[in-house]
TrEMBL record:
Domain Hexokinase C-terminal: 217-455
UniProt pathway annotation: Carbohydrate degradation; glycolysis; D-glyceraldehyde 3-phosphate and glycerone phosphate from D-glucose: step 1/4; Carbohydrate metabolism; hexose metabolism
Organism listed in the record: Quercus lobata (Valley oak)
Family that this chain belongs to: Belongs to the hexokinase family.
Superkingdom as given in the UniProt entry: Eukaryota
InterPro entries linked: ATPase_NBD, Hexokinase, Hexokinase_BS, Hexokinase_C, Hexokinase_N
Keywords from the named record: ATP-binding, Glycolysis, Kinase, Membrane, Mitochondrion, Mitochondrion outer membrane, Nucleotide-binding, Transferase
Protein name, as recorded: Phosphotransferase
Record-level GO cellular component terms: cytosol; mitochondrial outer membrane
Sample GO molecular function, one term: glucokinase activity
Domain Hexokinase N-terminal: 11-210
Enzyme class: transferase
Matches recorded under PANTHER family: HEXOKINASE (PTHR19443), HEXOKINASE-LIKE 1 PROTEIN-RELATED (PTHR19443:SF63)
Amino acid sequence: NAVSAGVAPILTKLKHDCATPLPLLRHVADAMAADMRAGLAVDGGSDLKMILSYVDTLPTGNERGLFYALDLGGTNFRVLRVQLGGKEERVIATEFDQVSIPQELMFGTSEELFDFIASGLAKFAEKEGGKFHLPPGRKREIGFTFSFPVRQTSIDSGILIKWTKGFAVSGTAGRDVVACLNEAMDRQGLDMRVSALVNDTVGTLAGARYWDDDVMVAVILGTGTNACYVERMDAIPKLQGHVSPSGTTIVNTEWGAFSNGLPLTVFDKDMDAASINPGEQIFEKTISGMYLGEIVRRVLLKMAAEGALFGESVPEKLSTPFVLRTPDLSAMQQDNSDDLNVVGSILYNIAGVESNLSARKIVLEVCDTIVMRGGRLAGAGIVGILQKMEEDSTGLIFGKRTVVAMDGGLYEHYPQYKRYLKDAVKEVLGLEKSKNVVIEHTKDGSGIGASLLAASNSKYE
Ligand code: ADP
């Protein structure tokens, strides 16, 4: 019933190549801090773009009134309204709606896509009533979360650099996406205005800050990954002309592009070479949900081919890229049964193989190796951001309570990943410093966050 001897050396080498001992994590944290600095110095100065968000005013809790949010970041767009009642009443009411974007619009023209969005927004706005009230003489204000690469030009404008995530809409690249939306709202006869254009990470930070003044960093770990944080204006040399009354602004790191000092294997390199963006987003490819399952699949395929992990023949389905998904890894790792029957049935359903107990144990070891590396490197990245902030203002981070707001399906639904991440943060920071650092999950902060940013950047205050 044992697994062939050919598997053991592959597993040993994998563990060796994926190891993340403390010195390596320290090095990654230091490199993250250094890359942040280089990206703040000049545009193009580092792997990290360090994009200025123009969000200089974060929610305080005092916001009042009716605000809308619009979220476009994938195959759905979401609309939301919130009635805010200040410090006492907080969120009096929220309503939201989700509309899936028809496939053909992802390949159509800019006008078609934005008309569809504006008409969805118009339908939603029509149903406003009950606890939602707009003071007379005001327009409805929108926080627009737009999760594609944008060169922000002010809090309420930004140029689309390129579509990603399967969108190939003609006529938007190089244009201000807020203007595109405004024109479509005009065509619909919809009289609303965008007060804040934000990245989803920035929305998450704003949403979390509304409830907790100590939130300084937000991290998303879902299909992809990104992080943003509160930066001092005088720590941004590349900044030209922009003045923030608060003296601080949120910087979107685009940390998925980080690549310094990561422990990569042949499986990572092959996956990267076969990807649509070879050489790019290396940190994202090592730690985020889109890729963890695929890395494991590549390891198992090699073990099947060279070590007969699943018997004499290589299961055909295991050769299909991305058949094994990160939620499958998580489901397998939650299997506590003696015979690992959940692992067995997932392998059967996905790869069409009958596995014995020792093969299932090997599969779990591979999952754990890849997930541990991902979680620990994400943790080291977080420490890098905290370290950079502390270096510039001693005591700002480690001298008081500091909250890192976390969101995304990977962090939320993969308990082992979350554990490895948190443990790595503690390990790198040490007992004393880590006492003050709280890593906290904020559920669905980014939608409310965008509407809060519409409120804190309202044209009427
Ligand atoms: P997105 O990042 O696509 O905007 P989410 O934050 O909801 O959306 O993240 C979805 C991603 O989270 C999935 O692509 C998957 O990688 C990961 N994920 C979802 N469910 C699970 C799960 N049960 N276990 C592990 N990872 C999961």
